[in-house]
């Protein structure tokens, strides 16, 4: 099992989760975070820290797509270990449906 970041993180990008991760397995895109599935130790401390409830265990049904997205982008985006302010539109974007298709950016974030 590993944890994955799902579409509700897109254009919210709260970083409370990265601050508590004991193995620094979060990677930052322009408007989204991902977890490296091979680095995640399945401790689960990140899940309750996410204000957008975007982090889920990959054992939940229907998360195969998100496991692939997390694995792919963790290979090319920079590592992030420090908490930063969320995106300016985070509150408005929290809970918006279909964010991956509408807003996902494959561009890397700034990382640490």
Automatic annotation (TrEMBL):
Domain 4Fe-4S ferredoxin-type: 1-30, 31-60
Tree of life domain: Bacteria
Cofactor(s) required for function per UniProt: [3Fe-4S] cluster; [4Fe-4S] cluster
InterPro entries, A to Z: 4Fe4S_Fe-S-bd, 4Fe4S_Fe_S_CS, 7Fe_ferredoxin, Fd_C, FdxA, RnfB_subfamily
Alphabetized UniProt keyword annotations: 3Fe-4S, 4Fe-4S, Electron transport, Iron, Iron-sulfur, Metal-binding, Repeat, Transport
Known function: Ferredoxins are iron-sulfur proteins that transfer electrons in a wide variety of metabolic reactions.
PANTHER family, per database record: FERREDOXIN (PTHR42859:SF2), OXIDOREDUCTASE (PTHR42859)
Name of the protein this chain belongs to: Ferredoxin
Source organism of this protein record: Pseudorhizobium endolithicum
């Amino acid at each position: 099992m590993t944890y994955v970041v799902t579409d509700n993180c897109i254009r919210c990008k709260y970083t409370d989760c990265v601050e508590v991760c004991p193995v620094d397995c979060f990677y930052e895109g322009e408007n989204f975070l991902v977890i490296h599935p091979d680095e995640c130790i399945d401790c689960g401390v990140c899940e309750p820290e996410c204000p957008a409830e975007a982090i889920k265990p990959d054992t939940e049904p229907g998360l195969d797509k998100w496991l692939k997205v997390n694995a792919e982008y963790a290979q090319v985006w920079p590592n992030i270990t420090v908490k930063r302010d969320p995106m300016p539109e985070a509150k408005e974007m929290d809970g918006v449906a279909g964010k991956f298709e509408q807003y996902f950016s494959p561009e890397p974030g700034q990382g640490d």
